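Q: Structure tokens for this one, please.
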Amino acid sequence: SYSIVRKGVNADGDYYELIEWNPMFLKQNKNTYRYWNNDGSFYECYPDWSDYYSKNANHERYITPRYGG
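A: Here is the predicted structure, written as tokens:
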């Protein structure tokens, strides 16, 4: 699974979470950023630089983070 290393609001007023994957997933020190943007959209950025975007963050609020690749 993963742990939330940091969460808060960035300079643009978007809520974000920084997630660190547990070693059992072979993703040590690999971080995933999740953003719930104040325009109602959702964005995830993965350690391999791939990403995911959704125009409706309401559908993404409680989902488990994906991993890119």
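A few notes: The chain has a mean pLDDT of 80. The first strand starts at residue 2 and ends at 9.
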